[in-house]
Specification:
The structure is a single chain. The chain has seven helices and four strands. The chain has 164 residues and is an alpha+beta fold.
Length: 164
C-alpha cells in the first residue's frame, strides 16, 4: 500500500490524502514506527535485503553454460540441457519457465523452451541499488562500477561455494 492510500484508510479525504501522507512521512515518530513494522515483517517472512540482492545477483549473473552444453559431434550440431539434479537452487531460481512443446505431424517434434528471468532488468536493479547511475542517472564512473563488480563477484563466489 502506498502512503496516499494509507492516508485515505486513516480517514483523510481523497482530495488531501497525498499532501497529508507526504507531511506525515516526514514525522520522526511515524518514520520510526514504519521502520519497526518493516523490520517485524522482515523477521516474520524471513525476507531480508540481502536475500533479495542475492536473488537479483543470481538472475543478473546467470550464464547459459550453467544450463546447457552445445557443440558439434561428427559434423552434427547439438544442444543438451544439463540434468536438473545438477543445477543449484540459485540456478533454477534464475529461470522463469521451462515448457515442453510437442508438435505432431509428418515429423514429430519435441522441444523444450527454457526462459530465463530478465537479466538486464536484474542488472539495472542492482546498478540502481549500488548507485551506479548517480543521483540523476549519470554514471558514477569507474570507481562505482568497480565496486559493484567486486561486490557482485563476491556474491557469485559465495553462491558457487554454496554459502547461501
Amino acid at each position: 500500500m502506498n502512503a496516499t492510500q494509507a492516508a485515505i484508510r486513516a480517514d483523510y479525504s481523497e482530495r488531501t490524502a497525498r499532501s497529508q501522507a507526504q507531511r506525515l512521512l516526514t514525522n520522526a515518530d511515524i518514520q520510526a514506527r514504519l521502520r519497526t513494522l518493516m523490520h517485524e515483517r522482515s523477521q516474520r517472512t524471513q525476507i531480508t535485503a540481502d536475500a533479495v540482492l542475492e536473488e537479483l545477483a543470481a538472475i543478473a549473473f546467470s550464464n547459459l553454460a550453467d544450463y546447457a552444453e552445445w557443440g558439434s559431434e561428427m559434423g552434427v550440431n547439438f544442444v543438451r540441457l544439463k540434468p536438473s539434479a545438477e543445477l543449484t537452487r540459485k540456478q533454477t531460481g534464475a529461470l522463469k519457465s521451462i515448457k515442453h512443446v510437442s508438435k505432431r505431424g509428418k515429423t514429430d517434434e519435441d522441444t523444450l523452451e527454457v526462459t530465463p528471468h530478465d537479466k538486464l532488468s536484474a542488472l539495472d536493479k542492482l546498478a540502481k541499488h549500488l548507485n551506479l547511475y548517480g543521483e540523476h542517472g549519470e554514471s558514477e564512473g569507474a570507481s562505482g562500477f568497480e565496486e559493484m563488480i567486486d561486490q557482485l563477484a563476491r556474491l557469485r563466489t559465495q553462491r558457487e561455494r554454496g554459502d547461501d
